[in-house]
């Protein structure tokens, strides 16, 4: 077996790395800005020219967008991903396209203890489904199921499901509908969503890093409260009794504010299902390369 190329394709950045015998080698990881390249194949060729690996026999591309057969479309970038283009750029025989959240979920068993930071304690069911919720340029979920000793992760595009009817956010939702009539979850719960929420509350437009640096109380309280409502709905929909794992740059930035500020109440209070939600532990994945690890795990199961 030769080497495998792993890709984590986001709306703003892409992460590339190599696996040998389907085991991810973190030393080979590189992060590129999408804007620096005209096409994805240009980026792949640049990476391979730098690393000079041996024969590439398989590719796993985790795409931040819907995957349909042998092609995918990034939701928050213009690039389309075609398996045939990756074959042409790498010479690989096998190309597998996944949603990027599927890859995050496939990584759960390969993360080191230091790669997962507990936020809200609970009593995880070791056989229960585990839900990964990413907050970055966009938002999405993936649910990892244990099936006969293997991980199975169905695809999802939950970031474009509709935000819940929470009375305190109705004015915000009316504002968001002007540009996004279908009122997707990621319109509010994402990096750009944090900017929209802050602009709605304060009248000023700031980047997510600037908002986190200023730490405006009203904005952060509103964001984590809405996150609690949405995450609770996702977890109860999938009975994610094995735990909720937040991932992505925005999730890591907001994590210190989740222990209070309304997140717990919004997440836990679910009528007759409150006891189930109280048992679901909440953690943050701190490993920025988790999707590459998950891609390697997926290839290990496929190859």
Automatic annotation (TrEMBL):
- Highest rank taxon of the organism: Bacteria
Query: Which segments does the entry list as coiled coil?
Result: none
By its UniProt entry, which InterPro entries does this protein fall under?
ATPase_NBD (IPR043129), Bacterial_glucokinase (IPR050201), Glucokinase (IPR003836)
Q: Does the keyword Cell division apply?
A: no
Q: Which UniProt keywords apply?
A: Kinase, Transferase
Family as reported in the entry's similarity comment: Belongs to the bacterial glucokinase family.
> Know the name of this protein?
Glucokinase
